[in-house]
């Protein structure tokens, strides 16, 4: 009613900042919050590297969507979707995750962190990819990531954060 959605082409999500500014688009909101809460590094170069890690995670999600095995896919039979899903979780996803694993080894200075030795937006993106996925995909995602020691340590570090644990315990059940 107050025009907040108009700034985002009449779509959710939007975030209204404490200063009353409206920000739309989920990734823009993620980056804004990461910057606001100190999860984007200290320099523009660090921010770029951390954002790169988060974008690698988005690439994985985009590739899964393009694979076309979700229940929303309309141009494939159930058998074709099942085969695409199997190929994704047994081959494609593990390959992509290992590439991210190798990249993160170059930017991490400590176990449990994707960049440097403090929690960043990149860590949260890795956690979301590996631990906060659709419940129906959780077991297959865990199996696809089983050889990714570094990524799993990062996801575990975020999962064990008291604020994240509290959020997970209290959030309502939702498909999204």
Number of strands: 2
Overall helicity: 55-70%
As a whole number of angstroms, the C-alpha radius of gyration is: 17 Å
Order of strands, main sheet, comes to: 1-2
User: Strand percentage, roughly?
Assistant: under 5%
The gross shape turns out to be globular
Structural classification: mainly alpha
- N-to-C series of helices and strands: EEHHHHHHH
Count the helices. How many? 7
Uncertain spans, ≥5 residues at pLDDT below 50?
Answer: none
How does the major sheet shape up?
2 strands, antiparallel
Cα end-to-end separation: 24 Å
Task: Give a structural overview.
β1 (14-16) and β2 form a beta hairpin. The mean pLDDT is 94. The chain starts with 13 loop residues before the first strand and ends in a 6-residue tail after the last helix. α2 runs antiparallel to α3 and α3 crosses α5 (138-144). It is mainly α. Helices cover 58% and strands 3% of the residues. It has a two-stranded antiparallel sheet with strand order 1-2.
Layout of helices and strands:
Elements: E1 14-16, E2 22-24, H1 26-36, H2 44-67, H3 78-107, H4 121-130, H5 138-144, H6 149-159, H7 162-170
Antiparallel strand pairs: 1-2
Helix pairs in contact: 2-3, 2-4, 3-5, 4-6
Key words describing this protein structure:
176 residues; mainly alpha; two-stranded antiparallel ribbon; 7 helices; 58% helix; 3% strand
């Amino acid at each position: 009613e107050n025009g907040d959605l108009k700034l985002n082409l009449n779509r959710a999500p939007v975030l209204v900042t404490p200063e009353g500014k409206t920000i739309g688009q989920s990734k823009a909101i993620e980056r804004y919050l990461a910057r606001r809460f100190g999860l984007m590094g200290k320099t523009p170069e660090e921010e770029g590297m951390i954002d790169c890690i988060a974008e690698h995670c988005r690439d994985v999600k985009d590739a899964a969507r393009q694979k076309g095995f979700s229940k929303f896919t309309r141009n494939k039979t159930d058998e074709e979707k099942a085969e695409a899903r199997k190929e994704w979780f047994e081959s494609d996803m593990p390959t992509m995750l290992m590439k991210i694993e190798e990249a993160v080894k170059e930017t991490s200075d400590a176990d449990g962190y994707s960049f440097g030795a403090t929690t960043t937006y990149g860590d949260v993106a890795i956690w979301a990819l590996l631990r906060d996925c659709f419940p129906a995909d959780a077991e297959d995602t865990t199996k696809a990531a089983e050889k990714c020691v570094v990524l799993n340590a990062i996801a575990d570090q975020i999962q064990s954060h008291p604020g994240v644990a509290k959020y997970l315990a209290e959030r309502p059940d939702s498909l999204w």
